[in-house]
């Protein structure tokens, strides 16, 4: 029997995935379920927050808040089974500066990333938009030896992906890949709930629901799971059908979807299945 050596070695190889969000909790919410699935299969996932989150609270701020959020991110990382890195840039003030682009190029190279995941460049939050620009601008540059010469370049451009959002202009999110995370949704929310200052303090304060946050730890996680549950959109359901088949796709209750960025490597279906070994299962 002819066995393709490249496909065997690819199956044996561990994948390296890096998710780059603007704030400590963005990676968790947009790709947390997928990250849990990768971690369970023994692959390496790193969550990166481009800012230290030092603006996201009503009664704390600055260094005090940054410390709280770093500790929360560390705990979330443990729960997800991923490495969590928080960059020392101020929350709400992120701009696409060259030194931050260089930091991102270093991180992608050091992680030897096969896949890089980030926000789309059109988003309500300036930090999300600028994170997207920083990451997009690292695509391709990660293989150029004369850029950031202190860190060896990657041999091939990773696949760059965008996380799902609800923004319609200039065009709505295109779910090229959709992962059924129904079986890990509870674990995702439990892991994300490590960001206590956000989910049980700051965000409820912003939307006026602070008095409805349950006091009991277990009740809180249940409450958060309800609040965070998003309907699977018709486009994402179509993508699930494509990757899982109709029967499995119709049973999915929660999904995470990704759009392929044109600036990274453009994978064909076969490569997508290798990069997302949980697809179809
Ligand atoms: Zn954010």
CA-CA gap between termini: 26 Å
Number of helices: 11
Approximately how much beta-strand content do the residues carry?
Answer: 5-15%
| Bound compounds | zinc ion
Strand arrangement across the biggest beta sheet? 3-2-1-4-5-7-6
**Rg over CA atoms:** 19 Å
Low-confidence stretches: 1-10
Description:
The chain contains 11 helices and 7 strands. Mean pLDDT is 95; it is low at 1-10. Strands 3-2-1-4-5-7-6 form a 7-stranded mixed sheet, with helices on both faces. It is globular, with a radius of gyration of 19 Å. The chain has helices spanning 5-12, 26-40, 62-80, 98-110, 126-138, 185-192, 196-206, 217-228, 234-244, 246-251, 269-275, and strands spanning 16-21, 44-49, 83-86, 115-118, 159-163, 177-180, 255-260. Strand 1, helix 2 and strand 2 (44-49) form a beta-alpha-beta unit. The two termini are 26 Å apart. It is of the alpha/beta class. Helix 2 (26-40) packs across helix 6 (185-192), helix 3 runs antiparallel to helix 6 and helix 6 (185-192) packs across helix 8 (217-228). The chain binds zinc ion (ZN). Zinc ion (ZN) binds next to loops.
